[in-house]
Design a protein that fits this description.
295 residues, Aminopeptidase, 2 domains, GNAT_dom, Acyl_CoA_acyltransferase, GCN5 family acetyltransferase, acyltransferase activity, transferring groups other than amino-acyl groups, transferase
């Protein structure tokens, strides 16, 4: 077997990226994603593409935010690992898989090849997530009307709320941030992401109880691929009342009022309360995502 050759692509040879089979449906999943040709890399053996990766970031980012398209041919896990190790960007790897992929032998085998390549390159699994996509055919979720929602221009209000929300959280990324730099880092990372999104700052909302207490926050957003539930969070002292559903319903209605024809969302598989709220609000699971951290 000949050695693997790793190549970075550009506009002149970007078509090489499309020569590898796509058993997990990544191309359709990235129909609205814009990948830069010079952030794509392939591994070739005897001139044939056996692994490929497309790193991704926003239109104004100078470096990729993550690697969200990674494919490896059967039996080529070592080549996939070499592709990952050779990249100049060591960022989080997102593997998006069809819902129920474990129940289909062919899909499971294709996924396991990618997992093996990631592990060989030193990546560790951080979390498995559920991806949702609401469309008008799902019907708008009922709004309970228990909370009052107001725009809030002061970032300090959201920062304080996020610190309190993440003091008791099931979210793996937030827990990682807390471990690395405490509650301030976790709150700051969330705010940085909200500001990074191209949607208006004026969309951010605080939810108040009938007594005037802050119950939680919700962030309707657009990421570069379209409208999404940016964040739903209930303060610890107001949990147990089902307010996360109220926030989710309000966030969905808000985005539709802004013209959204679909709404994307995600939650960790282990966050059973939030998954139940998405189900109650009529959000179907369309894909599953595994997030891997680089070495």
């Amino acid at each position: 077997m000949t050695d693997v050759v790793i190549r970075a692509l550009d506009t002149s040879d970007a078509e090489l990226f499309d020569t590898l089979p796509d058993p997990l449906g990544a191309r359709e999943g990235h129909r609205l994603t814009r990948h830069r040709p010079d952030w794509k890399r392939v591994a070739l053996r005897d001139g044939r593409v056996v692994a490929r990766g497309a790193w991704w970031g926003g239109p104004d980012d100078t470096e990729p935010v993550n690697l969200n398209w990674f494919d490896v041919a059967e039996g080529e896990a070592e080549a996939g690992a070499a592709l990952l190790r050779s990249a100049p960007w060591q960022v989080e790897l997102e593997l998006n898989l069809p819902a129920g992929w474990r129940d289909e032998p062919a899909l499971r085998a294709a996924a396991e090849t990618r997992f093996s390549a990631a592990r060989k390159a030193g990546y560790d699994l951080l979390v498995e997530r559920l991806l949702y996509r609401w469309t008008p055919g799902c019907g708008l979720p009922e709004q309970p009307g228990r909370l009052e929602f107001r725009a809030e221009p002061d970032d300090a209000v959201f920062f304080d709320a996020l610190r309190r929300i993440h003091s008791v959280t099931l979210d793996a990324h937030a827990l990682k941030a807390v471990e690395q730099g405490g509650l301030d880092q976790a709150a700051r990372e969330e705010l940085d992401f909200f500001h990074w999104c191209p949607s208006p700052r004026e969309w951010w909302q605080v939810a108040y109880t009938a007594h005037g207490d802050i119950a939680g926050i919700h962030i309707p957003a657009h990421n570069p691929s379209g409208p999404c539930i940016g964040f739903i969070g209930v303060l610890p002292e107001h949990r147990g009342h089902g307010y996360a559903y109220d926030l989710l319903a309000e966030c969905t209605h808000f985005l539709v009022e802004q013209g959204a024809e679909f709404v994307a969302a995600a939650t960790d598989q282990g966050n059973f309360p939030m998954a139940a709220n998405f189900a109650k609000a009529g959000f179907p699971v369309v894909k599953e995502r595994l997030n891997f951290d680089p070495a």
